[in-house]
User: Fold Heme sensor protein HssS from Clostridium estertheticum.
Amino acid sequence: MKVEYEEQKDNRINSRRSFVKEYLIVFAVVLWCCSGSVLIFNAQMQQNADPWFMVLIGSSYVLFIGVVVYVGIKILIRSSFTKPIHEIRKVARKVAEGDFTVRVHSQRKDDKKDEVEILIDDFNKMIEELASIETLKGDFITNISHEIKTPLAVIQNYASVMKKESLPIDKRMEYTDTILVASKKLSTLVTTVLKLNKLDNQEIIKKNTYSLDEQLRCSILALEEKFEEKDVMLDVELDEVMITTDENLMEMVWNNLLTNSIKFTESKGTVRIKLKKENGKIIVSISDTGCGMSKKTVEHVFDRFYQGDTSHSSIGNGLGLSLVKRIIDLVEGKINVDSECGKGTEFTVILTEN
Assistant:
């Protein structure tokens, strides 16, 4: 099967070589060469010069013109292509060595953008993105080390105390429960990290057609006990919708979003779940009347290990919404967040109807 790709026009380019200008330059050079050869030939004819002498003079003229044209083309190529590519090569070598502070400087003095300048801009943008990824990688290692170290420290400390024979049975049971909670948190963290790692390296998803409204009902029923524990009211409005996508991955999305809604909603609060089809799009919104988020938190809500509300940090690790975002990207959907401190949060998932 032959696949054709149509190159999109880059609107950033505002300086292109004119065909007429280039043609006139070539025409002028050819005219100059031809005129010179005709004048030399005419002078030799008037002097009745020897034919071999005329060949020698003509060859010398052609050689001279060739050298001039070659030097001119060499200067043009060097200024337009060789020099910028050489600069990019030097910077690329430094980036390969781990230096993400270097940049390729603009080669034009008139601030206009041609193809080479756009290449330089894109190359510098790539370096910025690589630097960002390297920073995220370092932050990820630091955060995960901290997240693993904390429950391990709890387990070690309480296990050491439990070795004392004089420890009362009620305290022993209390410390056992604490160890179980810490080990469960550690197990959840490792499982989530493994899921994220798998999803980061996954590009193909298993699609099947199923009832999305039924899946949402099952997710709500699975969390019924948690809703009752916090005395949270439910407002559910689900249209009948069939969808073709990865059922298991989407189940993780709904479970994470619903769990978060319960987690950040106070007692007697309300969680609303709505599902509808609109203009060929499937829209799922999950909102709550909880504490809401600040503007800064909304900006970083999908970052790994980011937790805007530290009062709930003991029951989370900041990876759930990162997992949600990765899954939505995999199924080629969108997720939006609308939140305000003290007024609650709404997550809107937009999927394409297949």
About this structure: The chain has three domains: 19-102, 145-200, 208-352.
